[in-house]
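hi! just following up on the protien thing from before. the input was this:
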Amino acid sequence: MKTVTFHGIVAARQILNQFLQPTPLRYYEELSEKFGFQAYVKHENHLPTGSFKVRGGINFMANLPAEQKNRGVVTATRGNHGQSIAYAAAQFGVKATIVVPYGNNPEKNSAMRAFGAELIEHGTVFDEACQLCETLQTERNLYYVHPGLEPALIHGVGTYSLEIFESLPDVDTIIVPIGGGSGICGAITVVKAINPNVKIIGVQAENAPAVYRSWKTGQHIETASCNTVADGLAIRVPFEFPLSIMRGGVDDIVLLSEAEFLEGIHLALRWTHNLAEGAGAASIAAAQKLSDKLAGQNVVMIMSGANVDTETLKAVFVALDFFHE
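and the predicted 3d structure came back as:
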């Protein structure tokens, strides 16, 4: 039976210390004045792949048995998970095959190839890419690194929550974007172990609300589509393993419109001077939406990734009339 434990996250921290520096947790005075609470941003966008996912990739690869390292791995992705696996595989001399749907972010595709992975385009949505992984697992004798079923991935990304408590022990609320769910499951595990009074708020897209609906109803709900500018949150079919953890640990989930994601990217750039992708800016956009409820609190917003593509950035400028501000 797969389990995620606080001990597993602490053990992952010892491994990651050999590869990564802790990311900054920065207090932003102007953002605090604007929102009406003490605003902190956890800059996971400063990691080598531009995303928190690399924590999970390295921990997974470090714990992969030697025989399976020799066989190689395969996984499906919309980008950041794939970059994580490609980067980590390169660190350990493992061959990585990454499957992405057609039309995937070309800049993320380029980054995965640059890390040495074999990239295969298949299907029109993420779920179809996953199906090919199952075939390649058998045909090529590869280990299928499922994005939502590997505790080692969650243990790895959970280390950023350990760092939050080390820097800000009196945190009141942590806001986390939800794609597959590894980041928020890591946060839940750490919060339950250190201070269960800390609130955890997830963020999803109105156009991709499968996790939100499943969490809200207690059922497993899939959506017909998941077209959102926040491609890191574009999940049509929830992963049951992380969903089971979220059901017992998430205090609320906020849905954002496409316009709010674009505004979030603008907020991140304007107030933190960091370029965030849609999922990476989701926590700031959600915090603005919830500012009345969060008044006076110490709030940590997870900037989960920096890998915004050029076309999305153009959309931000057009939508917000950025250059005429």
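The radius of gyration is 18 Å.
The mean pLDDT is 94.
cheers
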